[in-house]
């Protein structure tokens, strides 16, 4: 049996600093699919409004608590942001989440 897989230790992936207390780690994926992990420190606010194209965005809260429009979401919560949506996440306790979206080549939507 030949294993064709790539194990990734998330905390070893070099983070991209998005803003104060907001880090993103981009994970390997398939063509057309983008997957990342975001860590937000306690009290952090996403530094800008996150606008989505026609593909939208999906998020899975892994630990901590995410706040969206004054609603609080804990571990195991899956959030689906539809086409042309926007949001500005924040957290009081800190949060780790996985994000997913489609990334189509230019001109395809």
In words, what does this structure look like?
The chain is mostly beta strands and 109 residues long. It is built from no helices and ten strands. The protein has strands at residues 16-19, 22-27, 33-40, 50-51, 57-64, 66-68, 71-73, 78-81, 86-87, 95-102. The strands form three sheets. Strands 1-2-3-10-5-8 form a six-stranded antiparallel sheet, with no helix packed on it. It is globular. The N and C termini lie far apart (39 Å). The model has no long low-confidence stretch (mean pLDDT 92).
Give the SSE map.
Elements: E1 16-19, E2 22-27, E3 33-40, E4 50-51, E5 57-64, E6 66-68, E7 71-73, E8 78-81, E9 86-87, E10 95-102
Antiparallel strand pairs: 1-2, 2-3, 3-10, 4-9, 5-8, 5-10, 6-7
